[in-house]
Amino acid sequence: TAIEHRRNERTKGVNGLDKIIIRDRRGRSAEVYLYGGQVSSWKNENGEELLVMSSKAIFQPPTPIRGGIPVLFPQYSNTGPLPSHGFVRQRFWEVETKPPPLPSLSTAHVDLIVRSSNEDLKIWPHKFEYRLRVALGHDGDLTLTSRVKNTDTKPFNFTFALHPYFAVSNISEIHVEGLHNLDYLDQQKNRTRFTDHEKVITFNAQLDRLYLSTPDQLRIVDHKKKKTIVVHKEGQVDAVVWNPWDKKVSDLGVEDYKRFVTVESAAVAKPITVNPGKEWKGILHVSVVPSNRKA
Ligand SMILES: O=P(O)(O)OC[C@H]1O[C@@H](O)[C@H](O)[C@@H](O)[C@@H]1O
Predict the structure, then answer these.
(1) For the chain, how big is the Rg over CA atoms in Å?
(2) Annotation marks residue 163 as catalytic
(3) What is the pTM of this model?
């Protein structure tokens, strides 16, 4: 509504890159860079940052921004011929003031869009529109709704992930649950397939796994903070769990790996097909709750 819209602020972020700040009445906020359509910050009512931005993030197109929530489309990682993780994380998105209607219970939100450019069509010959709504809910929860429309004359397939760098007290003090007994492709071993027999995932070295056919809800339990990050996804059956540990990542500070884990909602093993004129929709909903509460 108009009232919600007035709360959004358009401002300059690092290196003068445009960003939108959305806020609710209790002081919670999220920030989104138009470069990449990338959420760079999500704060609760105490001003606590719930996502991690690399201390060495570059904020210089065409380098992707290291942190927040990158949008990986139309190709996850190096699973096809495109640049790794596709290209929309390196494109300038626009604010869309009158998007096609989307039911929403948000207290504040912003709608962004990116369309295939002529340059994009040379590397991926499919016309598309990608709409992203970033919304804060009544409990300060964060919802990203992705809508991918095929504006071309033939069907296309894509793979996809949203790649949140979730803030944790310390990578050694957390576990990820919800993936017990599931199969995963180990991305450090040429995507060899294994079954995860551990009840929960703990971290003490580099880990990079693509879990297949996962439940809609996954949880990151932070023992030190006594908080649980509840990740709920719809329309994306896979999930990636990644922490680089001491592996060299040029635009990541040496200690940064300790402060985050990525649990990514993904559609990789079975690419998504969209027919001409049709739209695919996927949702990522994240909330942070006290660990003793069953959300
Ligand atoms: O460095 P990038 O391109 O942002 O990718 C970061 C990570 O993204 C994850 O999705 C992959 O599983 C990792 O293999 C990769 O290292």
Answers:
(1) 18
(2) yes
(3) 0.96
Secondary element (H or E) of residue 120: helix 118-123
Domains of the chain: total: 1
Answer yes or no: is 127 within a domain.
yes
ipTM of the complex: 0.98
The ligand 1 atom at the shortest distance from the C-alpha of residue 242 is: 12
Residue 197 lies in a domain: yes
Tell me the per-residue pLDDT of 150-200, one tens digit each, with 9 for 90 and over: 999 999 999 999 999 999 999 999 999 999 999 999 999 999 999 999 999
Q: Which atom belonging to ligand 1 lies closest to the Cα atom of 249? A: 1
| Ligand 1-lining residues (CB < 6 angstroms) | 64, 77, 84-85, 163, 187, 208, 240, 242, 264
77 C-alpha vs ligand 1 centroid, how far in Å? 7
Does residue 152 form part of some domain? yes
DSSP state of 251: T
Question: Is 138 noted as a catalytic residue in this protein?
Answer: no
Domain that holds residue 205: 2-290
In a domain, 219, yes or no: yes
Buried b (16+ CB within 10 A) or exposed e, 103-115: eeebbbbbbbbbe
CATH number assigned to the domain comprising residue 276 = 2.70.98.10
